[in-house]
């Protein structure tokens, strides 16, 4: 009786995850349409400007906005965000929200503190890349912390397919890419996995 219940629960999470990530994707594309129609107004007003105290609230909005010059930035982020978000959602709503929140905040705070044009990077940072790196970090390490063989297997598969993106968290990444967002988002996802690890029993 336990296995069917588990399958039903997983199926319910899968449906909810698909619905959630589809809704997130729609929101991002609507925001992009508005941003392009207003010639980048959202990028200029909702992106992160490092060390500008008045800009701190934009830590909460910058992942929703992408480069207004075209669709390339958003298109590059869409598939990994959808996949990683969906897989994180399979662990449950609480784990998904915690991983997203910590990745979102850590990425934004890292950019606000350490980003900026002095290092040759844009003075305004936008995009969901930090959240993507955070979800990736969460998925990579949670299985080892949970001692769950299927989560470890998933982590190995994801690393084999997407592992090269981790170079994007290095300061040597190309000009115009915020390695700070990637690095601190990744750290936020790892912290989420640590905080959400099972205590007092082993994961099944």
Automatic annotation (TrEMBL):
The keyword rRNA-binding does not apply. GO terms for molecular function: peptidase activity. The chain crosses the membrane at residues 21-42, 70-89, 96-115, 121-141, 153-171, 177-196. It is a multi-pass membrane protein. GO terms for biological process: proteolysis. Residues 58-198 form the Peptidase S54 rhomboid domain. It is found in: Membrane. Keywords: Hydrolase, Membrane, Protease, Transmembrane, Transmembrane helix. InterPro entries: Peptidase_S54_rhomboid_dom, Rhomboid-like_sf, Rhomboid_protease_S54. Pfam families: Rhomboid (PF01694). Its main location: membrane. This is Rhomboid family intramembrane serine protease. It comes from Sinomonas cellulolyticus.
């Amino acid at each position: 009786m336990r296995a069917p219940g588990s399958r039903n629960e997983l199926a319910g999470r899968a449906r909810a995850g698909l619905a959630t990530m589809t809704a997130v994707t729609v929101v991002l594309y609507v925001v992009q349409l508005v941003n392009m129609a207003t010639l980048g107004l959202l990028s200029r007003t909702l992106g992160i400007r490092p060390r500008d105290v008045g800009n701190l609230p934009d830590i909460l909005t910058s992942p929703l906005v992408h480069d207004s010059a075209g669709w390339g930035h958003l298109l590059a982020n869409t598939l990994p965000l959808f996949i990683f978000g969906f897989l994180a959602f399979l662990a449950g709503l609480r784990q998904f929200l915690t991983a997203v929140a910590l990745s979102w905040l850590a990425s934004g705070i890292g950019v606000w503190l350490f980003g900026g044009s002095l290092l040759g990077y844009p003075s305004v940072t936008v995009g969901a890349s930090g959240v993507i790196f955070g979800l990736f970090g969460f998925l990579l390490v949670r299985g080892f912390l949970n001692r769950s063989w299927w989560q470890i297997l998933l982590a190995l598969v994801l690393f084999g397919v997407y592992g090269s993106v981790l170079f994007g968290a290095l300061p040597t990444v190309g000009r115009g890419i915020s390695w700070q967002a990637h690095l601190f988002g990744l750290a936020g996802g790892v912290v989420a996995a640590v905080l959400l690890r099972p205590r007092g029993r082993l994961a099944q």
